[in-house]
Amino acid sequence: MKTIPGSPRSRFAVAAAVVVLAAIVGSQPVPREQVGPLPGGGFLLNSGWKLDPVGKQIPLSTLPMSTALSPDGKYLLVLNGGYRPPSISVIEIAKAQVVSTTPVPERVARRGVRTAQ
User: Fold this and answer.
1) Pair 92, 74: CB distance under 8 Å
2) Residue 67 structural domain
3) Contact 78, 62 (CB under 8 A)
């Protein structure tokens, strides 16, 4: 049987250093990621997946359900439904911003949104 080189005192010092190092590394908390928007513009899902959409994002109400482009192509109407009361947001495409949001009754929200021809 081979013996480990070094005095018992030095072997004990090495073992103690390893234990202390392991305790220090193991005691550091892991940064916890929260579900929701990420600093870089993406979104963390509760499944752990990260979405990183392409293009410019425009903040809307909850759950955009359907869209309709105005006949002149200047505005996009977005029907929002979700845990908040339903609404229609009007987005000016050239500026890429919401110009108005109007609440709509629940019965209207179930039918979707479209523009007159």
Assistant:
1) yes
2) 54-117
3) no
For tokens 């030095």, name the residue. 10
User: Span 46-74, mean pLDDT?
Assistant: 88
Q: Is the pTM of this model over 0.85?
A: no
Kindly list the strands in the beta sheet with 64-69, ordered across the sheet, starting from the edge strand earlier in the chain: 64-69, 75-80, 87-92, 97-103
Q: What is the enclosing helix (H) or strand (E) of 75?
A: strand 75-80
Q: Is the pLDDT of residue 53 over 70?
A: yes
Tell me the two tokens of residue 81.
């439904």
Residue (of 44, 88, 43, 47) closest to 64 by Cα position:
88
**Assigned domain for 29 exists:** no
Q: What tens digit of pLDDT does each residue of 76-110 get? A: 999 998 888 899 999 999 999 999 999 988 877 67
What tokens does 99 get? 């110009």
Residue 23 inside a domain? The answer is no
What's the pLDDT score for residue 2? 66
Q: Is the dihedral of CA 37, 93, 68, 114 positive or negative?
A: positive
